[in-house]
Amino acid sequence: MNIVMMNTKVILQLMVFSLVFTMLVTRQAWGEEDCYQDKEEIKRKCKDAISLGGDYVQPSAECCAAVRKSNMAGICRNLSADEQLRVLSVSKLIRVSRQCNNPVAVGSKCGVWTVQPPYKDQPWVYVKSSGTRSRKNHETDRGI
């Protein structure tokens, strides 16, 4: 009788553990999907403001509305290397997020960049993950 109760207790503990684990993993997957949808919307609605190359373009009202309702930290976590090389400017994305009042937290990652506090006269300075300083102004890399 004692063995049966112990087995039942162990089975119940395993079931609870499995349930909690499943809930955590599923919630994280849902959150990542939300960020993917947010990212695609930002890429579409803010295309002119975050595109590679050229001068910075002020974000449109439609772009800012999308930025304000998006999870910008999630978007930053989900930027692929290909997107950073071919589709969008991370420095412009950070600038747009700040201008639209949904900034990515200083110290967090956005693609390969670590978000730094904005400088009064240099809002585009970031630190690469390797710790070396780089300057991204209008998408031309020049070492500082």
Count of helices? 6
What share of residues is helical?
40-55%
> What is the assembly state of the chains in this entry?
single chain
Counting structural domains, the number is 1
- Ends distance: 74 Å
The name of the CATH architecture is Orthogonal Bundle
Protein structure class: alpha+beta
Please provide the ordered H/E string of secondary-structure elements. HHHHHHEEEEE
Proportion in β-strands: 5-15%
Q: Radius of gyration from the CA trace? A: 21 Å
Major sheet strand order: 1-2-3-4-5
Describe the global form.
elongated
Taking the sheet with the most strands, its summary is:
5 strands, antiparallel
Beta-strand segment tally: 5
The CATH H-level homologous superfamily: Plant lipid-transfer and hydrophobic proteins
| Global mean pLDDT | 78
The parts where pLDDT drops under 50 for at least 5 residues are 26-31, 123-144
Which CATH top level class fits? Answer: Mainly Alpha
Q: What is the CATH T-level topology? A: Hydrophobic Seed Protein
Key attributes of the depicted protein:
single chain, 144 residues, alpha+beta, Hydrophobic Seed Protein, five-stranded antiparallel β-sheet, 6 helices, 12% strand, elongated, disordered C terminus, Bifun_inhib/LTP/seed_sf, Bifunctional inhibitor/plant lipid transfer protein/seed storage helical domain-containing protein, signal
